[in-house]
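Example record for the data management plan.
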Amino acid sequence: MNSVEVRLIERARAWVDTARRIVVLTGAGISTDSGIPDFRGPAGAWTRNPAAEKLASLRHYLADPQVRQTSWRNRLNHPAWQARPNAGHLAMVMLERRGKLHALITQNIDELHQLAGNSPERVIEVHGTIRKATCWECGWKGEMAPVLDRVRAGEADPRCEYCGGILKSDTISFGQPLVPGVMERALRCAQEADLFLAVGTSLQVFPVAGAVPVAKAAGARIVIVNAQPTPCDALADALIGASISEVMPRICGYAYVT
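Corresponding structural encoding:
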């Protein structure tokens, strides 16, 4: 960490100390230190294997049984099942305990924020969660674990037990509409922020990336913590490229938590 980054961290820490309504947007980068790879970084899942992005397409998933079978095998071994929250996640808990966290918008599907201790009511999961399953046809939703048990028992492409429809994880795939009201809530919270932290996100996926300009237009300071440049860097009051697990506890105030 160089001297410029240290000064920026101290500046961001001072902004956190005086802020009253902090909104955080997190992306895959906050979970890499928990063993969950990101998508577009140098070692990202889609960078190393561009064909893997096809598995995230709703059109291919619904039309191709082979895609579904591959997806279910991948879910069995998804790193989220063994992952544990890291210092970056715990920093978000610090913000909430200090009474400063207005909302935690996340693009992640791993639920590590909730496992770290953030209140589910504060977490806005714009892309859903891998820990739940849903039926594409009748709308049933339930825990993912029993469905994965069926896969382990030999069902390559498990179907809904209520209607026989196609099951998938309760996540948002490419080509799938967002859950009504979720994105609207996220943008409304961004507009209410006096400090907006974008952490570990490439800010390339819309509409969620639009939360940054919304917060900026409403008068919030913007801090972006990400290893790679983002399209929103010009809006930032502070750009920090150091390790999220190292930076975020400093910014969020570790000394305030007992």
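Summary line stored alongside the record: The mean pLDDT is 92.
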